[in-house]
Design goal:
With 154 residues, the protein is mainly beta. It has one helix at 101-110; strands spanning 13-19, 46-55, 63-64, 70-81, 87-99, 112-121, 126-133, 139-145, 149-153. It has a single domain (13-23, 39-153), classed as Immunoglobulins (Immunoglobulin-like, Sandwich), CATH 2.60.40. The chain is globular. The model is unreliable at 147-154 (pLDDT under 50).
Length: 154
């Protein structure tokens, strides 16, 4: 998740990165409270960004559960960097995604949807996103300038 490193593509995902209030979000509301774990208070104004992942399950080590569902153990992270490469905000989450056969069939076509949010300070910043498959250790990353819209890691 270090700034400026080449992207990793062991886990393939697409990410839509949009500021709250963007018409493409169709009125989706941000979660209450801060989004992220900044090392220092963020410089105002701060903009909340919605990060919508679509993770390709073809590259995940899906575990079969006793009830027939499939489980993905994922770690999702976002890191915001200033122009000097200093991390100014960070968020991460560990998730277990359980999919029925029908949900898995849909995910094989459209990806596994995951929603995250992160607060971004004013000024030039980059947003590095990462997805790690905990079961296999595979990782995918992508870095973009915040506010550039739809992005895809390939």
């Amino acid at each position: 998740m270090l700034n400026g490193l080449p992207p990793l593509s062991q886990v393939i995902f697409e990410a839509r990165v949009l500021p709250v209030g963007d018409p493409a979000l169709r009125g989706a509301a941000a979660a209450a409270g801060p989004a992220g774990k900044p090392d220092q208070p963020l410089k105002a104004p701060v903009t909340r960004y919605m990060v919508d992942y679509s993770i390709d399950p073809h590259h995940l080590a899906l575990k079969e559960l006793p009830d027939g569902r499939r489980q993905a153990e994922l770690e999702i992270a976002q890191a915001v960097y200033d122009p000097d490469g200093t991390r100014v905000n960070y968020s991460d989450a560990g998730l277990e995604v359980n999919l029925t056969a029908q949900q898995l069939a849909r995910a094989m076509q459209l990806g596994i949807p995951i929603h995250q949010e992160v607060d971004v300070p004013a000024g030039q910043v980059s947003l590095r996103m990462g997805v790690r498959d905990a079961a296999s250790g595979r990782i995918g990353t992508l870095e973009v300038a915040a506010g550039t819209g739809n992005q895809a890691a390939r």
